[in-house]
Design a protein that fits this description.
With 380 residues, the chain is α+β, with helices and mostly antiparallel strands. It has 2 domains: 128 residues, no CATH class; 209 residues. Helix content is 47%, strand content 13%. The strands form 3 sheets. It has a 6-stranded mixed sheet with strand order 5-6-4-3-8-9, with no helix packed on it. The protein has a 3-stranded mixed sheet with strand order 1-10-7, with no helix packed on it. It has a two-stranded antiparallel ribbon with strand order 2-11. A hairpin with a 2-residue loop joins strand 3 and strand 4.
Length: 380
């Protein structure tokens, strides 16, 4: 039996929007005995990271079901699945479709178009006198990597929102549109939904993780590491809030290209000798703060398509940001042991230090070229 629950009605509004490759290493490798392990490590590393090249940053993306009442009992339905780069679907998967009550009939019947990842579909339904109050909306067949943000807008402007996921694939709209349950249940739903989106966004956002990894490898002392990660956190939290609230608006393609460039520059710093004083190595926290502003604008892109509940905007924004921080903390913690191992191995094989620099830089440079191409390519 399909699980279902009541949709908590809250005012809801969508939020408006939303170099070169690392230089050749200057470190000297002495003797052929160093070159052989370096070549093997480089080959092994590239075999591991090659599949990541196909991954696109910000890979977590929910589906959106937007239902808007245009006249009494008449609704426009907009259904948008996440893009193919999200990893939500495997080849051959049956793509889910929304299921409306049986008494709702499509108007202006035309040839049915199958949903495609990343391509929005829209149609109009007539639900008669029953309408959609106290009725069930469902999206059967959700996999573990797919959530659905449901938005309902009534004729009088009242809004409601909900989240569907595997094991909870249906919800029942309220029978009284004036009902507003903004108590503990609604707050908990918002915290869990947007907090989970934040965690998954950072953990599946390969570019953000590579930037944080670059910072981990760049900074030597523990005190400076804490200071650098804290500066990055403050910066992207600030930029995220400003972008979501509409104070700052930057074209998303430009932001994505600059984020890739920031990773390239960090990778470039990793190729420089530790004895070479640079601004980045002396003040990594300042660089982390500056680039953190860019990454915060990138985080805001995840909320652009989803939107935020108007009456609980700050709560949802806080939950998403907390989720991002939890995911970032988990990643940093997981990387501490490999980071320590790399430091010890570098003492024996100094050239090993260049392996992650070139791997990170190569991926980021490829992303940058791809995103610059999308930015300048005219729409077809």
């Amino acid at each position: 039996m399909t699980a279902h629950r009541r949709l908590q009605t809250t005012s809801f509004t969508p939020v408006a929007g939303e170099f070169h490759a690392p230089a050749a290493a200057t470190a000297h490798v002495h003797g052929p005995r160093r070159a052989v392990p370096l070549a093997r490590l480089m080959l092994s590393w590239m075999l591991v990271v090659a599949p990541i090249r196909a991954a696109v940053a910000h890979s977590f993306e929910p589906a959106v079901l937007d239902v808007r009442e245009q006249a009494t009992g008449v609704f426009d339905v907009i259904w948008k699945l996440p893009g193919p780069e999200s990893g939500s679907f495997a080849p051959g998967d049956q793509l889910p479709e929304p299921l409306l009550p049986a008494h709702c009939r499509r108007m202006a019947i035309a040839e049915k178009v199958q949903p495609q990842p990343g391509e929005p579909l829209s149609w109009r339904v007539a639900c008669g006198a029953l309408g959609l109050h106290d009725q069930k909306l469902a999206v059967p067949g959700l996999g573990p990597r797919l959530e659905v943000i449901v938005r309902v807008t009534w004729l009088d402007g009242q809004n409601g929102s909900g989240v569907l996921r595997s094991g909870n694939e249906a919800l029942v709209l309220p029978g009284d549109r004036t009902t507003s349950a903004l108590g503990g249940t609604s707050v908990g739903t918002v915290l869990l939904a947007y907090g989970r989106i934040g965690v998954e966004h950072i953990l599946f956002g390969v570019d953000h993780l590579l930037f944080v990894l670059g910072l981990l490898l760049l900074v030597e002392s523990w005190s400076m590491l804490v200071k650098t990660i804290s500066a990055f956190t403050v910066a992207h939290s600030l930029a995220l809030a400003l972008a979501v609230l509409g104070v700052v608006q930057v074209p998303p393609p430009l932001v994505e290209a600059l984020i890739a460039l920031s990773i390239v520059l960090v990778a470039l710093e990793l190729t420089r000798s530790s004895q070479t004083p640079t601004f980045t190595k002396q003040y990594p926290w300042a660089v982390a703060f500056a680039f953190g502003l860019l990454h915060g604008l990138g985080f805001a892109g995840a909320l652009t398509a989803i939107g935020l509940p108007r009456d609980q905007l700050m709560l949802a924004l806080l939950a998403f940001n907390i989720g991002v921080e939890i995911g970032q903390l988990l990643f940093v913690t997981a990387m501490l042991v490999p980071r320590a191992w790399l430091r010890r191995a570098t003492m024996r094989w100094p050239a090993i230090e260049l392996v992650p620099a070139y791997a990170i830089g190569s991926l980021a440079f490829a992303w940058m070229l791809e995103r610059v191409g999308r930015f300048w390519m005219p729409p077809s």
